[in-house]
Amino acid sequence: MGQEERVYCLAWSQISGIGPVLLRRLQEHFGTLKAAWKAKTPELAQVEGFGFQTLGKVVQQRSQLHPEEFYALHQQENPYFWTPADAEYPRLLLETPSPPAVLYYRGEVELQENFGQKPMVGIVGTRKPSEYGIRWTRKISMALAKNGFTVVSGLAEGIDTESHAATMKAGGRTLAVLGTGVDVVYPRKNMELYKQILTQGLVLSEYPAKTPPDRTHFPRRNRIIAGLSRAVLVMEAPIKSGALITANYANDFGRDVYALPGRLDDYPSQGCLRLLSQGAGLILQELDELLKMLGAIPQLDDVEVSPSQQGLSLPSLSPELQRVMDAIATESLPFDFIVQQTGMPAGSVSSALLQLELMGLVSQLPGMRYQRCLYQ
């Protein structure tokens, strides 16, 4: 999959009724989304979930949309996004049953997070926390940040706001998953927090630029918080809290769920108490134990290295070449990402890549992508 599949992934996402599940079925049935786009109606009807109404929408809307032209126009307002066709698409999220067909982002990308090599933990809870909930959210967020975890939340009032702010105060990274476009801040009072996240983390959304708040968007975005995270911590949540939706998604995705205990007659703790009765992990005062449990969650498998590669030392490189080499993984990365990771001018990166390629250390792939060579 490459640029062409990315174009058609975006095109399919514009068809009413085509969500992540049907998109995945199309790809599995036809091999590529381009082939699915060009398929005749009887062929589409063979795909599970394509009923009469859905087929009608596809036939009508597909004829009015030219994928390449739409892609070029869409990029003008939405320059940064991933599709499942991209190697940079967050791997944990991609493994869920309904990954967004288009995931828009804004801020500072850290590919270790996308490739599952840096653990992310979701923190969610009520918009009206007690002093107790605020205190423990701050304490746990700062502890996670200082121990190398990335904290994921939703930029909402209350627990979300406290978790983002405390994480960054401790010098850590945080991801905010929005129910609006990545350029729309909701609630507006979090504008300064949003701006800080752009410099110290990432803002994500499945909705394109300028999408306003909509009450149906926020429950759906909770699946993204759960999908990105290796574990979800529920700090305070009433019975009907959206945080419990996130916890349910986390359970469905096989993630660990932890809850902060509270008193039996505390309204903000009723959802947490229910989670604990259903088997959620207990957040105890001894945070070392929680950190140990979170750290024990297995990492995604790294690229396998053969015995002959272990202990292999690279030739001595100039500082500039070494800087570019350090930015390249064994999985292919686009040129723009390498420029972003090194902070060097594009011309200097291009020259360095050519030298590294001539030295046999880096190989260029189609689409201006580069990866380290595997040695024998």
Q: What is this entry, summarized?
A:
This protein is an alpha/beta fold and 376 residues long. Helix content is 45%, strand content 12%. It starts with a helix and ends with a strand.
Sum up the structure in keywords.
376 residues; DNA polymerase, domain 1; Arc Repressor Mutant, subunit A; 3 domains; 18 helices
| Strand segment tally | 12
Helix-strand pattern: HHHHHHEHEHEHEHEHEHEHEHEHHEHHEE
* Order of strands in the sheet with most strands: 1-2-6-5-4-3-7-8-9
CATH architecture of the largest domain: 3-Layer(aba) Sandwich
Radius of gyration: 22 Å
Number of helices: 18
Main CATH class of the largest domain: Alpha Beta
Strand content: 5-15%
Characterization of the model:
With 376 residues, this protein is of the alpha/beta class. The protein folds into three domains: 3-77, DNA polymerase, domain 1 (Orthogonal Bundle), CATH 1.10.150.20; 103-295, Rossmann fold; 319-372, Winged helix-like DNA-binding domain superfamily/Winged helix DNA-binding domain (Arc Repressor Mutant, subunit A). Mean pLDDT is 89; it is low at 301-313. A hairpin with a 3-residue loop joins strand 11 and strand 12 (369-372). The chain is built from 18 helices and twelve strands.
Outline the secondary-structure elements.
Elements: H1 3-13, H2 20-30, H3 33-37, H4 41-44, H5 52-62, H6 67-77, E1 81-82, H7 91-94, E2 103-107, H8 111-114, E3 120-124, H9 131-146, E4 150-153, H10 159-169, E5 174-177, H11 191-200, E6 201-205, H12 217-228, E7 231-234, H13 242-252, E8 256-259, H14 270-277, E9 281-282, H15 287-295, H16 319-327, E10 333-334, H17 335-342, H18 346-358, E11 362-365, E12 369-372
Parallel strand pairs: 3-4, 3-7, 4-5, 5-6, 7-8, 8-9
Antiparallel strand pairs: 1-2, 2-6, 10-12, 11-12
